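Technical note accompanying the year-one report. For the benefit of new consortium partners, we illustrate the data format agreed upon in the data management plan: each record pairs a sequence with a C-alpha cell string. No post-processing was applied to the example shown here.
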Amino acid sequence: MREVQVRDQPASASTLLALLGVAVLLPVLVIALLILPVWAALVVSVVAAAVASWIAWSRATTTVRRLSGGSPADPVRHARLLNIVDGLCLAAGVQAPNVDVVEDAAANALVAGRSERDAVIVVTSGLLEALDRVELEGAIAHQLVQLRDPSLGSATVAVTTVGLPVLLADRLGRTGGSGQRRPRPIRLGVGVDRQTWSDLDAVSLTRYPPGLIGAYEDCERVGTVLASASTATAHLWMAPPIATSVRTAGEADRDGEPRERDLAERIDILREL
C-alpha cells in the first residue's frame, strides 16, 4: 500500500492563539511605552493581546462560514443531505453539526469547528447534483469523522490567527486584479496527510470504500475549484478549492514540507484497501 505520513499532532489551537497574542502584544507594548508609564503600558498590551485572542477563538467557525459563502440547508430542498448527515452522526456517535450549502457548480465540501458544539459542514450544490446517495454518504462521512479529530479545532482557529495575513493577501489579490499571485495556503496548525487520514476514517465508518472512490471520481469529473474560495480556508476543503492549491502527489514544497495529496492519489490509496 502507498505510504501515508504518520498521523502527526499539529500546533494546537492554544499555541496558535498564543502566537497571535504575542504578535499583538509586542507592537502595542512598544507604542504604549511611548505615551504611558511602564505598568500602564503592560496592562494595555496584555489586555489588547487577550482581546485579540478571544475574538480569534470565538469567531473562528463563524468566519469560516462567512468565507464559504453558504447558507443553512433547506429542510425540503436538501432533505436527502440532512437525512444522510443525521444517519451518519448516529453511526459515528457525534453531535449533528450545522449544515450549509453553497450555490456553486464545483463538487466539494468543507468541515470546520472549534468543537462538535459549533461545527459546520459546508457542501456545494454541485456536489449534491453530481453524487448519488452512496457516494454522498462517503463524502459526508469524510467530513463527519473529522469532528472526532482534535486537529480540526486547530485547523479552524488557524484561519483567524496565522491565517490573518493570508486573508489580507487574498483580499488584496482579488481587488488587485488577476495578475496578482494568490498567497500560499495555511500550513501551521494543519496536520500532514490530514485529508488522507480522514479518507481512511471515513471508509471505516461507512464500511464501503467504493462509495468514497466514486465520490472522488465524480469530483474530479465535475471539478472542485469554487468561484469564490478563500485561500485562508483551502486546507479545510475536501479537495483543492482553488486552482493554485492543486497538489502533485508525493511532491514536496521548495521548503521541504510535504504537500497534501491530490484526489487521484487518494483514490489509488482507497483502491488498495
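Partners are asked to follow this layout when depositing records. The chain has a mean pLDDT of 87.
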